[in-house]
Each structure stands twice: as C-alpha cells, then as structure tokens.
Amino acid sequence: EPEVTQTPSHQVTQMGQEVILRCVPISNHLYFYWYRQILGQKVEFLVSFYNNEISEKSEIFDDQFSVERPDGSNFTLKIRSTKLEDSAMYFCASSVEGGEQFFGPGTRLTVL
Amino acid sequence: AQKITQTQPGMFVQEKEAVTLDCTYDTSDPSYGLFWYKQPSSGEMIFLIYQGSYDQQNATEGRYSLNFQKARKSANLVISASQLGDSAMYFCAMREFSGGSNYKLTFGKGTLLTVNP
Prior knowledge:
The complex is a heterodimer. Helices cover about 0% and strands about 50% of the residues of chain A. In chain A, the strands form 2 sheets. In chain A, strands 2, 4, 5, 6, 9, 10 and 11 form a 7-stranded mixed sheet that branches. A 4-stranded antiparallel sheet of chain A has the order 1-3-8-7, with no helix packed on it. Helix content of chain B is about 0%, strand content about 50%. In chain B, a hairpin with a 2-residue loop joins strand 7 and strand 8. The relative contact order of chain B is 0.33. Classes of the chains: A mainly beta, B mainly beta. The interface between A and B is medium-sized, with 28 and 23 residues.
C-alpha cells in the first residue's frame, strides 16, 4: 500500500541553525501539507501546497519557514533559523483533490 | 472560538466494551468533512473514518462508526468491542473549503483512550 515517507525520523539541532525536513508524498497525489504537533498538544496546520505554490499558510508559518518541491518526488520544509519553540513533531501529508489526507510518520525536531 | 472541541481529555474502557469519543464542531461552511485519526504512542497519525457534511448515512469502518448529528454539530466516534491495541490518542478533525482545492484540517485537542484488560 502506498504511503507517505519522511526523513529523518528525528533531527536534533542547535538554536539558530537551519533544518530541512523531507517528505516523499504518495506518487499520484498533487496536494501537499505540513502540520506541526508540539509535545502533548494538538496538531496544527502550517501550510498547503499545490501546483508548485503555497495555497494557504497559517500564522505559524512565518518568514522563517519555506516549502519547496525540488523534484518530482520530494516535498521539503525548511526552517531557516530554528528557535527553541520550533521543537515539535512535524507531519507531512498528501492527498488527491478533495480526498483524505494521508500522513507520514513524522519527524521529531529537537532544538537545543 | 474553537472549531473542533473534544471535551474528554481522557477516557477509560474495559476490553470488549464499546466506547464513544465526543467531538463537536463549529463552521459556517455548508460543505465540510469530519475525520477521526488515531495516534498511538509511537506518534504516527492513522486515518480511521470520514464523514461528509452531505452524507445521508453515518460512516462505518469495521469497528469504527461515526455518530453524525448535523443539527447538533457533533461527530462522535464509536468504537465497538474495544481491544487493548485501541489504547491511543484520538483526534477529531474538520476540513473546510479554504478557497481552493486544498483543504486544511483543523484538529481538536484529542482524547486519550485507555483500554483496560
């Protein structure tokens, strides 16, 4: 069964460093999403992406964040200068148009 | 105002019994969808069941069913014959039309279900 994959599963970084979280969506999906879950809290929407551009972003998704689809398979989330409060689980999801969103296993980001 | 409200931070159920997890929602969009996801301690998000706002019948998927009461804006998850493996965090989520074909999900705070042997 096709699935969304994410790498790495756990990323530890120093405050102020840049990180790139990678996702490989399901191959026939064209709609991509990033969500964040701070430990013990609810899942929060960050950004949605379609046709090589951002469709919608939340107030969390400030200038420190960017997304990219560098090739036909990867979808990345970049945080330019990480802060302690960026520590969270980051989920990538993908869908067909109007379909249910399939989530990846998540990347746990720890900022020290 | 919260768009998705899950009023039960934690629930306990005996193995083999049924349990209902509550979810109420708030939207002015006539077209929306409601989802339930399971998050075990390992952290992944597992899709369980979906209900569209125009669906005439309540959704069912195996042991999972959704008690959809549109007038009350509630979409409770019913798990029948609970199993030890059902112990997890359960999130209710809503999808609204967001001006394009992408539909962001808005999640509730979750309910931690513990199944006792």
